[in-house]
Q: What sequence folds into this?
């Protein structure tokens, strides 16, 4: 799928989950890829890593998503002194009962915004890892289930590296998508200015009256519909070929051989199939086409490929590697 085709598809609104889409488009000016990818992650029951400069509506997007699905939202600022108990909760002593009671932490909300996730130490990352993968939290000998609709939206600042910790590869692999948010265009920024000006003038009741939501039951039904979409066997093999090419690059292209140090895991194969189905469902299609795979591949594979020292020396980005991958692996 060409860049022009992808943008045209994104500008054509999803046919379903209209209430959720309306909330996101009301609150977020531009950032079409971010909106689409959030809905895809929601449909796939996956988590999302968002990378971008400060002030690009990452927090606003997470709040809007929670509003759009009538879900509970909590934002937690990750800092070097954060403790696992700050995230998952802790047991407190209740004098009246002469016993300990577990007080749930922010991880038990439907939508959790982990702001600047790479600033937290390893113990906090480990606590979040269980929640993301198993949808549960273990405290002592007791395991607590998280909500059925549960999604982590984590943010990273690409320019500030002082006081940060690199996310473990195992945790990066748990994020379904890694989306890069860029600056808005001049036209979009003017719309942001007008939106903020009008919002401040309007009464709170009038602002809330314009919010239309999708129920969580509607989201679960949409997940089943997207999962049921047909995928041709040749396209399944194509997805497998794309992922195995990251591990066996010498079979496809000499450039890739020098650029990739470690390839993607089988979790990337599963994520590609699920995300391509969700993308096709959003476009109102009854089956998955190659362009659906190409539309989601960069955000699925970008964070799962470890570049070599040669690629870094040549200033080749992970996005460049994925683009080359899509060029050299033949479409069936």
A:
């Amino acid at each position: 799928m060409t860049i022009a085709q992808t943008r045209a598809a994104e500008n054509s609104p999803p046919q379903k989950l209209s209430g959720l889409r309306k909330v996101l488009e009301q609150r977020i000016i531009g950032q079409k890829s971010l909106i689409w990818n959030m809905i895809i992650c929601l449909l796939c029951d996956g988590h999302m890593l968002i990378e971008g400069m400060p002030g690009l509506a990452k927090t606003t997007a997470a709040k809007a998503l929670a509003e759009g699905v009538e879900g509970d939202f909590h934002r937690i600022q990750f800092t070097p002194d954060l403790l696992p108990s700050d995230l998952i909760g802790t047991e407190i002593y209740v004098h009246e009962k002469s016993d300990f009671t577990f007080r749930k932490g922010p991880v038990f909300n439907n939508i959790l915004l982990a702001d600047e996730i790479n600033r937290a130490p390893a113990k906090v990352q480990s606590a979040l890892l269980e929640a993301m993968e198993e949808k549960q939290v273990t405290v002592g000998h007791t395991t607590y289930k998280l909500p059925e609709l549960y999604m982590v939206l984590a943010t990273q600042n690409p320019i500030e590296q002082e006081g940060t910790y690199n996310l473990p590869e195992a945790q990066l692999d748990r994020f379904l998508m890694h989306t890069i948010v860029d600056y808005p265009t001049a036209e979009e920024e003017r719309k942001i200015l007008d939106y903020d000006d009008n919002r401040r003038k309007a009464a709170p009741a009038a602002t809330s009256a314009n919010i239309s939501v999708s129920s969580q039951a509607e989201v679960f039904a949409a997940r089943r519909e997207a999962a049921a979409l047909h995928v041709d066997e040749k396209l399944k093999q194509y997805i497998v070929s794309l992922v195995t090419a990251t591990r066996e690059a010498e079979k496809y292209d000499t450039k890739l051989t020098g650029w990739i140090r470690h390839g993607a895991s089988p979790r990337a194969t599963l994520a590609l199939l699920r995300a391509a189905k969700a993308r096709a469902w959003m476009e109102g299609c009854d089956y998955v086409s190659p362009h659906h795979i190409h539309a989601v591949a960069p955000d699925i594979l970008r964070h799962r490929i470890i570049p070599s020292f040669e690629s870094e020396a040549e200033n080749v980005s992970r996005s460049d590697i994925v683009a080359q991958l899509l060029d050299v692996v033949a479409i069936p």
